[in-house]
Amino acid sequence: MDVVLGIIGGSGLYDLPGLEGTWETIESPWGEPSDSVLRGTLAGTPIVFMPRHGRGHRLGPTQINYRANIDVLKRAGVTDLVSLSACGSLREDLPPGTFVIVDQFIDRTFAREKSFFGTGCVAHVSMAHPVSRDLGDRIEAAAEVSGVKSRRGGTYLAMEGPQFSSLAESHLYRAWGADVIGMTNMPEAKLAREAEISYATVAMVTDFDSWHPDHGEVDIQQIIATMNANGDAARALVQALAVATPPTREVCSAGSDTALEFAIITSPDARDPALVAKLDAVAGRVLHRTAP
Ligand SMILES: CSC[C@H]1O[C@H](OP(=O)(O)O)[C@H](O)[C@@H]1O
Ligand SMILES: Nc1ncnc2[nH]cnc12
């Protein structure tokens, strides 16, 4: 498969300096995406960049239209998607400045649309392995090359926000074994899987959330300062990742490329044509194929 690398820039990352390209507006039947996408090439790799909160950080984590964003990235041809996200640390050994290459998620969000599917076209995809190992390998290698302090593996707890956690919640999430906490990677990772896009996250630690006895409560000014410091390292990592990205790749070991193969359970005659039409980009591969 020909690789198109998608980058979702989180807090503090609203463009990709060095990416030669143009901003393109792509319409989606799922509503308004966060912004236009910046499409170009970096080290010969085709890249599509989307600022998750919109340029100027207009949108909070609950207001982001995750379905429209993933649909637009699918329409732009993205096959491999990397989320760059600010996060809090739930572990002593993951101090601010550490980049965690997450491999699991706990979804505690509750006020978001979480699926492209529903009445008139029901589908159930596996989320056992939400992150592509191969993409994680490439990110790990890129982190090494760019001198970024990284940690392979970790569980990201997605909370609704926009308020940060209480002390009791922070302790609870630590007891659950979560490593980092943020507000955006769910339902993004679920929707990427439904859209058959390989997904991985670089969770860039900005703070110790509220559990750490020596660090007190989360302070947005401190987060912004650390986020800005992390920004240069994130851009270096993307550059190295572009260099490490092959023009074509094998089938995703996490099953992303074929997630919908047997996932749609609604019989063809019971499907809602309006929903099927909206699913043209996300599920066109399986919905519009002709019987052998
Ligand atoms: C600015 S701190 C809180 C904010 O930052 C993270 O967003 P993103 O993942 O897009 O970098 C976090 O999830 C919150 O939305
Ligand atoms: N402590 C925290 N909790 C949730 N989201 C965050 N983003 C950055 N730090 C965070």
Which labels suit this protein?
292 residues, alpha/beta, Rossmann fold, eleven-stranded mixed β-sheet, binds the ligand CSC[C@H]1O[C@H](OP(=O)(O)O)[C@H](O)[C@@H]1O, glycosyltransferase, Nucleoside_phosphorylase_sf, Nucleoside_phosphorylase_d, EC 2.4.2.28
Topology, pairings included?
Blueprint lengths: L4 E5 L10 E5 L12 E6 L2 E7 L14 H10 L4 E10 L9 E4 L1 E4 L25 H13 L4 E3 L2 E4 L8 H9 L4 E3 L2 H10 L3 E10 L12 H25 L28 H6 L1 H8 L5
Parallel strand pairs: 1-4, 1-5, 5-11, 6-8, 7-9, 9-10
Antiparallel strand pairs: 2-3, 3-4, 5-10, 6-11
The chain binds ligand LNRAV4D5 and adenine (ADE).
How would you describe what is shown here?
With 292 residues, the protein is α/β, with parallel strands linked by helices. It has one domain (80-287): Rossmann fold (3-Layer(aba) Sandwich). Helix content is 28%, strand content 21%. Strands 1, 2, 3, 4, 5, 6, 7, 8, 9, 10 and 11 form an eleven-stranded mixed sheet that branches. Strand 9, helix 3 and strand 10 (180-182) form a beta-alpha-beta unit. The mean pLDDT is 96. The structure holds ligand LNRAV4D5 and adenine. The site of ligand LNRAV4D5 has 12 residues, from strand 5.
